[in-house]
Amino acid sequence: MTDDTVSPKYTDGLVHVVVQDAETNEVLMCAYMNKEAFELTLATNVAHYWSRSRKKLWKKGESSGHLQKVREIRIDCDCDDLLLKVEQIGGACHTGYRSCFYRTIDGKVVGEKVFEPSDVY
Known about the structure:
Blueprint: E1 15-21, E2 27-33, H1 35-44, E3 48-51, E4 56-59, E5 68-75, E6 81-88, H2 117-120
Parallel strand pairs: 1-6
Antiparallel strand pairs: 1-2, 3-4, 5-6
């Protein structure tokens, strides 16, 4: 990080992250990072997150191969939310869809299924 880099504010050790396709601007997923995940993401240009359910660090795509190559990181005005603009390799959603936001509130599937979870997990 450079001297003028803005650092995220962590709440309970975490910062909220919105992940967006760098080319299409499609929102792919939301997640959380702790400081270690943020620093690994900066160092490698590959998205790393903190799993609240598993209570562990994870690299997006470590088991599926569906990596997120980070092209840009933005921070909101309060420094408590991050926006990752990524090149998504494969699907972002563990259910097999390109985006976690693949259905409308009434259940209509509007997203593209790009893989079968049983093939990669």
